[in-house]
């Protein structure tokens, strides 16, 4: 849902959806799982759309760190 909202320019709603998904995915699959990385990247997109670039960079960095650890 978050990705669809972001693609339609609804970044605040997208961020909320991505962070909700992140919480759920961490609870289900653990904080270091691929699902969490996907939600973090989604949040990064939403932060970027909102002009919150430091937070976007942080979310993207966390997502990349998880993906690299899973290699």
Count all strands and give the number: 0
Helix content: over 70%
Write the H/E string, N to C: HHHH
The Rg value, from CA coordinates, equals: 11 Å
Can you tell me the overall shape?
Answer: globular
How widely separated are the two ends? Answer: 27 Å
How many individual helices? Answer: 4
In the predicted model, the low-confidence regions spanning at least 5 consecutive residues are none
How is this structure best described in words?
The chain has 71 residues and is mainly alpha-helical. 82% of the residues lie in helices and 0% in strands. Helix 2 packs antiparallel against helix 3 and helix 3 packs antiparallel against helix 4. The model has no long low-confidence stretch (mean pLDDT 97).
């Amino acid at each position: 849902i978050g990705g669809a909202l972001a693609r339609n320019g609804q970044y605040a709603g997208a961020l909320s959806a991505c962070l909700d998904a992140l919480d759920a995915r961490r609870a289900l699959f653990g904080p270091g799982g691929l699902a969490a990385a996907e939600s973090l990247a989604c949040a990064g997109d939403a932060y970027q759309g909102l002009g919150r670039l430091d937070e976007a960079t942080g979310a993207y960095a966390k997502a990349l760190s998880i993906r690299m650890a899973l290699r």
